[in-house]
Amino acid sequence: MTQTATASVITPLRPVSKDGLQALAAKAQANPNVIGTLKVKTVCEGQFRNLTYVRNLPEHVIDEPPTLLGEDTAPNPSEALLACLGSCLSVGIHANAIMRGITLSKLELHLEGDINITGVWGIGDLSEKRLGFSAVRVKVDIESDATKEELAELLAHANHWSPVANTFRNPVDMEVSLA
């Protein structure tokens, strides 16, 4: 009787340097109180289409859908916020997987958020209500060589240390003023 063995081949995601991650971690551990300042510039192009400039990168477009009187040329601000959360969690999951010796072959995050938009930028229903997201759900579709328990721990760790997730969870001092 002949038996056939089937092996599944995991094609890892494009690699990140583990040495680079270790050097970054060592630098942070050597000076844990460093606060960086990120800067962007947003310019309203017209209607609700905005161009945001980050470093020397091409502009990042934000728009509104037709239901909110936009041109529907790009994500709206709230969708972009969910995208930022998904990307931040993804980076954390990937970096920590590498540091733990876990090979990822698929990493997709599916996000959805509940938001009451009846206030419509302060011109709609101005009755007392929660502004912003009231709930956000993230489902992570991941394929790897790790156990389900290892993956659950990896996700919990990345979520705990995500700067964007913590911006959602924690109050932030914010000032808006004329230039």
TrEMBL record:
InterPro entries assigned to the protein according to its UniProt record, in alphabetical order: KH_dom-like_a/b, OsmC/Ohr_fam, OsmC/Ohr_hydroprdx_reductase, OsmC/Ohrsf
Span of the signal peptide: none
UniProt xrefs under Gene3D superfamilies: 3.30.300.20
Pfam families listed in its UniProt record: OsmC (PF02566)
PANTHER family for the chain: HYDROPEROXIDE REDUCTASE
Protein name: OsmC family protein
Source species: Pseudanabaena cinerea FACHB-1277
